[in-house]
Amino acid sequence: LRFPERRPDKSATSGPVSPHGAAAARGAGGRRRPEQSGARGTRAGSGRGASAPARPVAAGPPSRFPPSLPLRARAPAQLPAMLGEAETGEPPFGSAKAEGRKAAPCGDEELPPARYALESVSPERYYLQSPGPPGAELGGGPCSLFPYAAAQPGAVYQPPAAPRYPYGPVLAPGGFAGAVCPPGARYGQVFLCNRPLWLKFHRHQTEMIITKQGRRMFPFLSFNITGLNPTAHYNVFVEVVLADPNHWRFQGGKWVTCGKADNNMQGNKVYVHPESPNTGAHWMRQEISFGKLKLTNNKGANNNNAQMIVLQSLHKYQPRLHIVEVTEDGVEDLNDSSKTQTFIFPETQFIAVTAYQNTDITQLKIDHNPFAKGFRDNYDSMYTASENDRLTPSPTDSPRSHQIVPGARYSVQPFFQEQFVNNLPPGRFYNGERAVPQANGLLSPQQGEEVASPPQRWFVTPVQQPGANKLDMNSYETEYSPSTLLPYGIKSLPLQTSHALGYYPDPTFPSMAGWGSRGSYQRKMTTGLPWTSRTSPPGFSEDQLSKEKVKEEIGSSWIETPPSIKSLDSNDSGVYTGACKRRRLSPSTSSNENSPTMKCEDINAEDYSKDTSKGMGYYAFYTSS
DNA sequence: CTTTTCACAGTCGCGCGGATGGGA
DNA sequence: TCCCATCCGCGCGACTGTGAAAAG
User: Fold this and answer.
1) Which residues make Cβ contacts (< 8 Å) with residue A109, sequence separation at least 6?
2) Which candidate, A234, A301, A303, A300, places its Cα nearest to that of A272?
3) Residue A208 pairs with which residues in a beta bridge?
4) In the beta sheet, which residues pair with residue A238?
5) pTM of the entire predicted model
6) Where is the composition biased (Basic and acidic residues) (predicted)?
7) Which of A63, A431, A460, A564 lies in the 20 to 30 Å Cα band around A267?
8) How many helices (H) and strands (E) does chain A have?
9) Where are the alpha helices (DSSP H) in A172-272?
10) For residue range A273-285, what is the model confidence (pLDDT) as tens digits?
């Protein structure tokens, strides 16, 4: 039972009365009986958080491992060895510490924090990047945006004394291009589902707030995995490691290095997906979201909260996704490093901060994070004015649409297209684009099938699905269709179907239907359209990022857009400076000056597609063995 | 001076329980 | 009249960024 320590009854105090306070005043406690709070408190399953386990994610139905089989109990002694780093002898985090752990909706009581929640896994490893502002970094670093850094020669710095990554080196000494794949081995591919959104932040150098109680990431990590053995079992977890050996500070409107990073930071660096372990089929069936992952600067958090990753402020970090094949019992084979796969998406790099430094990032967060709706200055006008006047998405737009672009909305679009067209004013289409520009990077399946009618992909973005306004990121998963990921561009995969709508067995539950079969996903990916080869070349330069943006612009150009809005949309920062009142100002540097989007005005789509057709796509390949 | 912490206001979803309506 | 299902409002907690104060 939590006490409203920070929520005194505002109706009893002076000042503005919050909605809750007003409600309390109206109700005067009338309907809330004395025993109510007690009942609520003693009711184990009540409350927002506790309700979550009802979802498949936490309840475990999709999992072949019932909650009664905590991974921790299966091979408690193996993790230290697997993570390889010299352990300090302290007990594994989370072991016998459950009493101190906060009950979490994800059923973290069943989580195996101790298995991976080990310190010192990452500090010794860095991803070398040229210091400097994001722009320079992107332009200069050969691996700045390479989606699978492991293939980049020299991409990783390892202090001489640092032990090798126990799973087998994510990067072999000196780096290597391509993984050593044992005969018959089956390796997965991972797509960063919300990559366009990540790119948007990355353009300004993503910042992530860290607090003592833990702060969720936004954007959060969200992957789609293919190529796993459907019957094999895997653990999936995210590790956050230092991205470079520098300490950073925000000065003169840009990030600059200042000293060396403290690579001795203790604390949990690993977050195991709550559904681990699970079958390959399970992991491939739906998006793997790490929305509940929290970042903290509280070194003590590792002991009692497996949902927290401990970071250090003003350091740059790189999340990494690990997929480890395990036995049905959840035990990993320590002798077979080929069962470990690591994926790196450099665009997910971020600098941990205790307070936002760059107002561009702040504004992006406010604009895209549904939890920050209250900070949208024009919130009232946005949602009460005519649709045409809106600059930011309606609250009825799925919050998830901001975080996770490829939602079920896309996949269901063929069925509801007419409805959308009939019900949505044209302006809303644009707004959808404005709200979800990342959709440009994640071309919808429909677009893949109907190149002649590109508008579709735009007017589907604001479309609502039942319950689309839910904030809960997990619920998103139940609506998400993997078919929306095809823009990530796998050209051929084993599973294919010839049935165009094979994954829409029931239009009533289109997205759910989308889960059951990867068929159309694959099928759509074989369309051979330009975006099927949409890739992230090894040297993902700032220029290419700009082109990414250009593509967004191009994609939105199909519709008649009010000039004022169009101009705003042509530059993210412009939107914020022009349409939104800035709460904070970036010192000395206007967002326009820094915004790489300014440089992409003259980049045409042809060049873009040409560039992006090289190299690998939005997905990372297996990077280690 | 920079960085971190904390209280705050706002949005949202969930669960509870009263109110309501239909059927036995 | 009773029972049951449904609807609706309220309280709560989770979550966000803000901005001032505190700490370094």
Assistant:
1) A67, A70, A98, A101, A103
2) A234
3) A352
4) A271, A321
5) 0.52
6) 1-10
7) A63
8) 26, 19
9) 195-203
10) 988 889 999 999 8
